[in-house]
């Protein structure tokens, strides 16, 4: 019983928030892309690219904010590749996303060796300076208000929700994802809206990668670690809604935080079983939610203007 109370503490909640940030950002990106009708399996690669490019930008400029912008830019560029082949050439979006993931692994491995002369990790970089306020000393709340990236993430959650449901662009985005033919007859540029959705998806997922790199103060080969796929599961579990996807991301982050806590406590459970907790939860959640979830009607279906 004492071990139970040791696990569930403020430190666990704080850790949950920190772990959930890349899940939240990537899930928001996936939501925007799929509401517009384009499946983005490439989140895993976009997280990796965002992490790597942010480290490169930070390393050469010694400015973490410029590094952040460089990481987001890298994510947008790679997302454009996915958008181009999926929208322009109407390629299979699943295959395009998988190809993006494979390409991201190859690109980061090559330039990691070329620039840092290492096959495992980059040089150390400086992170973004925490904000020092009177609230910073309060447990849990202090962790949130002192981190600029956590604050940015919270703002983005509500910004994405507001944009999707309260603006004319959001209405066009959802109409393109539901019935692109009808949207086209109303004068909506289906291709343009879908491009924007995928590019926004790339920027958000890449920002999740920036968080990973800055949290560890370096880039590590393969550091995305399946987070892109878990973010997709969070989006599906959240029924393509930004707020629900955020809650689902926190659930997955909570599972991973428990996994870490269990390992540090030395509980007599095989470590392999502990490490599989987040991934087992992903499978269970998908199995329970796929039959009940309804994706946008035109999600994953290429559009050809007649």
Question: How does this structure look, described?
Answer:
- The chain is mainly alpha-helical and 306 residues long.
- The protein has a single domain, classed as ABC transporter involved in vitamin B12 uptake, BtuC.
- It is 72% helix and 0% strand.
- The protein contains 14 helices and no strands.
- The chain has helices spanning 2-7, 10-35, 43-61, 64-88, 93-116, 141-145, 148-166, 168-178, 180-185, 190-216, 227-237, 242-265, 271-275, 277-289.
- The radius of gyration is 19 Å and the shape is globular.
- 43% of the residues are buried.
- The model has no long low-confidence stretch (mean pLDDT 92).
Kindly report how far apart the N and C termini lie. 66 Å
Rg estimate, integer Å:
19 Å
The CATH architecture is Orthogonal Bundle
- CATH class categorisation: Mainly Alpha
User: What number is the mean pLDDT?
Assistant: 92
The domain tally reads 1
Number of helices: 14
State the total count of DSSP E strands. 0
The low-confidence runs, each spanning 5 or more residues with pLDDT under 50, are none
Order of helices and strands: HHHHHHHHHHHHHH
Shape: globular
**Beta-strand content estimate:** under 5%
Protein structure class: mainly alpha
CATH topology: ABC transporter involved in vitamin B12 uptake, BtuC
Describe the biggest sheet? none
């Amino acid at each position: 019983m004492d071990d139970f109370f040791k696990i569930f503490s403020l430190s666990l909640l704080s850790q949950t928030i920190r772990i959930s940030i890349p899940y939240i950002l990537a899930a928001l990106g996936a939501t925007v892309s799929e509401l517009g009708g384009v499946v983005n399996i490439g989140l895993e690669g976009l997280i990796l690219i965002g992490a790597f490019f942010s480290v490169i930008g930070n390393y050469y400029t010694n400015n973490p904010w410029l590094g952040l912008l460089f990481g987001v830019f890298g994510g947008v560029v790679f997302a454009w590749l996915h958008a181009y082949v999926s929208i322009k050439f109407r390629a299979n979006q699943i295959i395009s996303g998988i190809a993006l993931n494979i390409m991201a692994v190859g690109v980061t491995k090559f330039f990691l060796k070329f620039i840092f002369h290492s096959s495992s990790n980059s040089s150390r970089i400086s992170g973004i300076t925490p904000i020092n306020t009177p609230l910073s000393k309060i447990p849990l709340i202090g962790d949130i208000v002192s981190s600029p990236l956590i604050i940015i993430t919270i703002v983005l959650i509500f910004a994405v929700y507001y944009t999707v449901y309260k603006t004319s662009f959001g209405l066009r985005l959802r109409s393109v994802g539901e019935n692109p033919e009808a949207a086209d007859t109303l004068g909506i540029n289906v291709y343009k809206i879908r491009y924007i959705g995928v590019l926004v998806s790339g920027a958000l997922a890449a920002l999740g990668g920036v968080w990973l790199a800055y949290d560890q103060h370096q880039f590590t080969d393969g550091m995305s670690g399946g987070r892109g796929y878990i973010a997709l599961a969070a989006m599906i579990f959240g029924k393509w809604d930004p707020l629900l996807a955020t809650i689902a991301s926190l659930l997955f982050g909570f599972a991973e935080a428990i996994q870490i806590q269990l390992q540090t406590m030395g509980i007599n459970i095989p470590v392999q079983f502990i490490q599989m907790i987040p991934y087992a939860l992903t499978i269970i959640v998908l199995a329970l939610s796929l039959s009940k979830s309804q994706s946008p009607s035109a999600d994953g279906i290429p559009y050809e203007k007649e």
